[in-house]
């Protein structure tokens, strides 16, 4: 019985509020929610039609508006269509949107257009942010490759130095051995000639074996030297290839178009939030934010200048490419001001 009386009371209030939908939509929505929760299953459509003359679409809109605006000071002087359109704006941004746009003075069509333009601008901004992130990711990837290639190059240079030292030592020892072997071979050949003249076959065979062994040793030493030289040549070729890769990747990084990043680094955003929270009511926070951004920009530029000074000494060609890239970025910033 109490439930019936309560439903009847709510229904009467809905009918009264229905005469002023421009101001009482939220209140209607709240009561519709209460009625729907109290009705038996399957009675909701019948109730809307017979008691308050609402379609389910309209009732759902009113209930949705009531739920969405429950935690926000709603613009109660707006009609149902405007309130419904504003639901397309995320709840955390809705209050700011209403403040920035004169929603009350707008027609429903103008409001729809403003929301659409906002969505398109947000989409464009998101696409630019994704593009900037992808560009940065690609740069970080190239820089990672640079680091790895540089490490491999340093290892190859160290190996190459070891090969050069080893080859130098082998050449010195082998040259002495080959010289001694060739001298021994010459002496053995003289003894062979004498043995052949005297008809000493046993001595002749021994001398021939000795000459063969010493000749084989000369060939072995020469082959070993050639193999060491081949290793050294292969190492030098690898170093040339790595240096070419490194130079190519440096150029990829340096000649890339400047990336304008819309998203401020997390540390800077945190500093801004702290400053905003300490700002007095009505203070000009734009000036405060400008000071923080300007400080960040100045510090970053100082770091770039230090790196440029190092590049100018170590690699003038890369320095010129970096300089050109920085000037191009400055021109882009100048055009935007």
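^ Assign residues to that structure.
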């Amino acid at each position: 019985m109490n439930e019936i009386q309560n439903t009847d009371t709510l229904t009467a209030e809905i009918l009264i509020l229905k005469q002023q939908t421009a101001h009482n939509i939220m209140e209607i929505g709240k009561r519709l929610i209460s009625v729907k929760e109290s009705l038996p299953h399957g009675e909701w459509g019948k109730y809307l039609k017979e008691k308050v003359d609402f379609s389910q679409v309209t009732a759902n809109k009113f209930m949705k508006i009531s739920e969405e605006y429950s935690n926000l000071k709603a613009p109660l002087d707006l009609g149902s269509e405007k309130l419904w359109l504003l639901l397309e704006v995320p709840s955390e941004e809705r209050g700011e949107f209403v403040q920035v746009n004169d929603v009350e003075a707008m027609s429903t069509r103008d409001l729809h257009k403003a929301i659409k333009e906002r969505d398109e601008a947000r989409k464009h901004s998101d696409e630019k942010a994704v593009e900037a992130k992808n560009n940065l990711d690609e740069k970080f990837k190239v820089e990672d490759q640079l680091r790895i290639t540089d490490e491999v190059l340093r290892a190859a240079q160290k190996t190459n130095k070891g090969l050069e030292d080893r080859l130098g030592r082998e050449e010195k020892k082998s040259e002495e051995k080959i010289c001694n072997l060739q001298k021994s071979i010459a002496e053995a050949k003289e003894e062979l000639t004498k043995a052949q003249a005297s008809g000493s076959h046993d001595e002749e065979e021994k001398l021939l074996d000795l000459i063969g062994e010493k000749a084989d040793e000369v060939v072995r030493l020469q082959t070993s030297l050639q193999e060491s030289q081949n290793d050294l040549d292969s190492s030098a070729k690898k170093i040339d290839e790595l240096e070419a890769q490194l130079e190519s990747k440096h150029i990829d990084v340096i000649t890339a178009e400047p990336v304008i990043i819309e998203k401020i680094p997390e540390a800077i955003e945190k500093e801004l939030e702290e400053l905003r929270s300490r700002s007095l009511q009505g203070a000009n926070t734009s000036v405060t934010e400008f000071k923080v951004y300007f400080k960040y920009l100045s510090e970053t530029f100082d770091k770039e200048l230090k790196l440029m000074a190092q590049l100018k000494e170590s690699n003038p060609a890369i320095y010129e490419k970096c300089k050109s890239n920085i000037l191009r970025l400055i021109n882009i910033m100048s055009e935007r001001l």
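Residues 2-121 form one domain.
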